[in-house]
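Input.
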Amino acid sequence: MPRFRDLRIEMDLMTAALNFVVPPASLVMLTFAWPTLTFINTCEWIYNTFFTSEDMENKVVVITGASSGIGEQISYEYAKRRANLVLIARRENRLRGISENARRLGARHVLIMAADVVKEDDCRRFINETINYFGRVDHLVNTASLGHTFYFEEATDSSVFPILMDINFWGNVYPTYVALPYLRQSSGRIVVNASVENWLPLPRMSLYSAAKSALVNFYETLRFEVKDDVGITVATHGWIGTEMTRGKFMVEEGAEMQWKEEREVHASGGPVEEFAKLIVSGACRGDPYVKYPSWYDIFFLYRVFAPKVLYWTFRFLLINGGERRTSFIGTGRPLLETSPRRLIGGPVTTSQSLQQQLKLE
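Output.
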């Protein structure tokens, strides 16, 4: 027992010393190494762009959530590279128009399939149909996503919680699970549509952030498991001009819930088209990460080494910086308690009645 106590004391002293020394030492090392690392990364980017970038002509790309937003624009970028496309979404009527646009841009062949990515059987069906038609899968691009704009404490109906997890997490895991054996055969790549909210705290996005955090950690772990057999590109974005940032709250790739007033809200931030172009270029180069905009990374240093600075900064800018304006969509709270605003198609008082009014495009 005395020997055990001595050993424990030594370990405690060592841990205390490391806690004191490692953080500042790491910052100093990073400061001196930054120019060299930047130079190496630049050389690697140039080499991969001009000498080893993957030729996507006649390759087969499966894109989920392709009926709008990032998924639609990624489809066009792959089409310009003359790839064969398999477009997946719940809104088949939207996919028809997108498939025609993709063909005009250069896609060799385009298949469209209506499917629900949160159902494993649907995922197995569209992957099997892809294999039966093309015989291979080279890239799997998961873009299906669902956000929200309510404060967590305002949600009185927890039935919306699993919907957010289903779309943002399982809606990526199931297609990956089914397609992974075929991606191994082709030494293919998985492209993931994540978000900076997976590590950067923002108000009114608690459940979305949690789902995205789980998603990124899943793929980071999978990256070690598949090694070099299958590439993984994790794309993280900040505030971009998607349907959600224009005021729409997308459920299962098609059922819209939207304030009439929010239809006119200008979408701030970088364009989704630019982000889609960066994703496809990065995937073809074999980049493990694509970030847009990249300056968000500096906040990660603050989170690790000065979390209180980050917390108080965002609290000042985002929480106390203006009126607490929340869309009560999906919270189960009566809308007329706070505002006379109405949803397109009529008033809604509970999430159950809201779901009854939802209609796929």
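The two ends are 71 Å apart (CA to CA).
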